[in-house]
Amino acid sequence: MPEAAIVTTGPASPGAVHFDSIRVREARDVLNRFYHPVSLGTPECAEAMVGAEVIQLGPLTVGHLTFAGRVTLVAPAVDAYHLTLPTAGRVLARRNGREVTAGPATAVAFRPGDPVYLRPQTPSAEIDVRIERWALESELAALLGHPVEGPIDLPVAFDLTGGPAHSWSRLIRLLHDELEHETSLIYQPQIAEHLCSSVLSGLLLSVPHRYHDELVTPAAAGPPRAIRRVLDTINAEPDRPFTVADLAREARMSVRSLQEGFRRHVGCTPMAYLQEVRLTRAHETLRHADPATVTVAAVAHRWGFAHLGRFASAYRARFGASPSETLRRRA
To answer: Which UniProt keywords apply (predicted)?
Structure first.
């Protein structure tokens, strides 16, 4: 693909591209790079143009594709989970002999091993999501606290107009909306990891599959000894970029059991407790720091806060003063 057709965006430039309008051959090269080996066909003598914004966040790929002209996307078998969310127009999808015509109210899903057939109407636009198989199945195993047998039986299509699936689609659209902003937090590895986990767990909680009933059934609370182990881990290293799955592994229990154990024995979620410890450590650091050599930003980043505005807001709510006011009192 000609280099001039790609404009990389943000610090994660190897995993993000943007192009406004290119021909089918070049578009196929980009889709092969970010999604799956696909053939991109057009009727004989027809012209078609494709535009896209794509970002990779570890095992998660989110792209917004636009089509002008008749195009058909075919893959003999995908090696990951693939979801298509039309944002304008409609798309005809086929999975294992079943055809679905989807619009902005419907998402279409393909599982590892499924052949993919997508024929967008023109003009049309869609958000395409690729999730690596190991990532989604590991996320499900962590939530349940036991191994799972994949692939997960995602439905061919599911409704996006209400309930958890509607909320999940808004999260996907948020990622798309952030693509054009070079300073977006989605390019920060710590934030990207949390967003990726939220997308994966949100999908698993939003659509029917054979593990869904078990997933939404209230979990037994974790024993106090395991909860204490997590509390000790957080207090020992609150600056580490913990995820709730990391803490569940420390407790040797499922994410749901950890959350229920914290609710019952601590009175808050694991991540809320982690933030409280970080705020306290940041407060102590600012109280004893020299404002001539230390900045609020440096203290925030030291204790795991990637977004200064949110740090300042949480700090003021907790201590009744801004971080800079606390630092100046040392002068």
So the answer is: Activator, DNA-binding, Transcription, Transcription regulation
The structural architecture, per CATH, of the domain 218-267 is: Orthogonal Bundle (1.10)
Whole-Å CA distances, 263 to 232, 241, 256: 17, 22, 11
How far, in Å, CA of 182 to CA of 8, rounded?
A: 10
Cα separation, 197 vs 131, in Å, equals 11
**Distance separating the N- and C-terminal Cα atoms of the chain:** 57
Gyration radius of the chain's alpha carbons: 23
Is the domain covering 3-206 a CATH 3.60.140.10 domain? no
pTM above 0.90, yes or no: no
Alpha helices in the chain (DSSP H): 24-34, 133-144, 163-178, 189-206, 212-216, 224-236, 244-251, 255-265, 270-288, 296-302, 308-319, 323-329
The domain limits of the chain are: 3-206, 218-267, 280-329
- Asked if residue 323 has a cis previous peptide bond (ω within 30° of 0), the answer is no
pLDDT digits (tens, 9 = 90+) for 206-220: 999 999 998 888 777
DSSP string, 18-67: EEEEEEHHHHHHHHHHHS---EEE--TT---EEEEEEEEETTEEEEEEEE
Length of the chain equals 331
**In which element (H, E) is residue 94 found?**
strand 91-95
